[in-house]
Fold this protein.
Amino acid sequence: MSPSSSTGSSEEGGLRPRGQPGAAFPPPPQTRAAIRAWDRRAIEEFGIPGILLMENAGGGAARAVEEISLDAPLPGPFHIVCGPGQNGGDGFVVARHLHNRGHDVRIVVAGRAHHAAGSDAGVNLEIVRRMRIPLSFPDAPAGGEAFSGSTVVDALFGTGLSRPLEPPFLDWVRAINASGARVIAIDVPSGLDADTGQILGAAIEAHSTLTFAAAKVGFFHGSGPRSTGKVRVIDIGLPREIWAPL
């Protein structure tokens, strides 16, 4: 099944190409620099811990996955494919919430991605480890057939990716695309430049993208519409004073 290209709408009122100060959620599309600035302000000016933003992001994404499944049942199991950095941490939170809701969840830490102990992602990795959710650390994908007939949650890379993918992560993206699995991207389809919509070597072709705080401008340019599928914006609890100042 090929992904939908209808990035202009979502199940929760749609994405607006423009917004006004004080407008209702979601804000208009943003660049990666703007999203980073929003996160930094939330943490430094408002005192919101980064791990709480990660919890809100992953929990909101897990709820959205279930809502998508109500419209068109998603095949199990859920393979949560996590990469390095914060996007991988978001994936651990998604996995935990789906597991708690009774879904068959399997976490794949692709390329043996490292998450430092005590970091936001590292804390969430340790939680899912203690919960004994099935967890593997393969260096390279066994092949697309490993995901065939299932649902893949892409948590490899988010907004920060700005250079072409290289092995082993390039191989993971290609294997997921070749699998025929239903694919849901977390924040940004891995391999898509969030600012330009350019494909950085290869990019996930998602059926749905659950993006955080605001859509990214690259979703509407270049290969963005083909890579993202249907887009839903997840509220991660950023203070309104940041994204809709009076």
Notes: The domain at 50-236 is CATH 3.40.50.10260 (Rossmann fold).
